[in-house]
Amino acid sequence: MAVYIWTGTDRAGKKQKGEMEADNLPLARQMVVRKGIAVKDVKLKPKALGDYFPAMAGKVSDKDKVIFVRQFSTMIDAGLPLVQCLDILQAQQDNSNFKRVIRQIKKDVEEGSTLSDAIKKHPRVFDNLFHNLVAAGEIGGILDVILNRLAVYIEKMAKLKKKVKGALTYPVIVVAIAVIVVAVILIWVIPVFSQLFRDAGVKLPGMTLFVMNMSDFAKSYFHWMLAGLFILFYGLRRFRRTTRGRNFFDQLLLRLPVFGILLRKIAVARFTRTLSTMLSSGVPILDGLEVVAATAGNSVVEKAIREARLSISEGRPVADPLAETGVFPPMVTQMIAVGEATGALDNMLAKIADFYDDEVDTAVGSLTAMLEPLLILFLGITIGGLLVAMYLPIFQLADVVAR
After folding, report:
1. In angstroms, what CA-CA distances link 45 with 1, 84, 224?
2. What is the mean pLDDT of residues 259-268?
3. What is the pLDDT of residue 344?
4. Confidence of residue 298 (pLDDT cuts 50, 70, 90)
5. Closest CA to 93 of 102, 84, 81
6. Among 326, 346, 367, 403, who pairs with 280 as Cys (CB 3.0-4.6 Å)?
């Protein structure tokens, strides 16, 4: 069905407008008239850019998905039919891309598709975890419960993502500003001093000569340096998309002195939270591990989970293969072993996830506290060093004049 937008006036003479789905224009007009509206205009709604180019469509945020899932769960729990739920959710959605996705899901469901299969067609919005949990909810007849668990999961993962972004944003901004300031000083400020010193004909300190030569180089090859940085960034980005490049960078990140520890804790929190959500929703352990591996976010962790899954499929307990990978801390594997032995693996995984969420909080706080003095030192050495190098000859000139 196509979407039509209409305008008209109600019985009180007030202007009204809206949109609706219909098979054709005459039917859309009839549907508006049945609402008691004096129709002024009904026309086909123009397609958004995202309808033609899905890759260019607006992003669906975690907040949008949480609201969608919670409202969906409430309506299903209240006994509303699936198609009616999707129709209501689509009508009140402000995000045009998400609105388009929900409309397509509703259409597929009306044509006989299951909700999970309809969702699977939109991997940019709903990942494998979402699809698998919805499928488990449909099979078990507990879709409303599953959707509530999904909402909690998305909220917790969004919170974790926000912590990491918060930790990285401050140093990135400071370093970027420092680079811009240094570039401005080297290209526009130092040449003025250089000309002054050359005209004075005084012997310059080695530090000043070094900075002046660096300034001359930056001024002469500024455009080539920008082009080189762009090519380097593009090349690294292309390399990162290859299997070899992804493995290289992911291993490098986990080996970094401070960030590596933080990233490892984030990986453990993500792994335990995701697997706990899947197991508590009735997904088999092997299927759950497959989805968790695909959503790990790090190729090293993904490889470790897949290797452990292979061993588990051969009849081994869950904890032992995970311990052998060397990726997961001993405390995690020991708690998993206890949870497996007591038959409460999903609850134990949730407790581990909560613990590592707190660990990430602590690690982010420590990282921020450590970065602040390091960034101040960095700024002092770079910008302060440039200024001192250029003022040394001025002090020498002042001494000569004073004598």
Report:
1. 12, 21, 49
2. 88
3. 92
4. confident
5. 102
6. 346
Helix, strand or coil for residue 202? Answer: coil
Give dist(CA 281, CA 26) in Å, integer: 46
Lowest mean pLDDT among 106-110, 330-334, 369-373: 369-373
| Angle, CA 222 vertex, CA 220 and CA 228 arms, to 5° | 125
pLDDT surpassing 80 at residue 207: yes
| Distance in angstroms (rounded) separating the CA atoms of residues 288 and 273 | 11
CB 316, CB 333: distance < 8 Å: no
| pTM above threshold 0.85 | no
Taken as a whole, the chain contains a residue count of 403
Query: Position of tokens 């993962």?
Result: 157
Name the pLDDT band for 400 (thresholds 50, 70, 90).
low
CA–CA separation, 101 and 80 (whole Å): 20
Distance CA 77, CA 73 (A): 6
User: According to the model, what pLDDT value does residue 346 have?
Assistant: 92
Instruction: Name the nearest CA neighbour of 130 among 113, 112, 143.
Output: 143
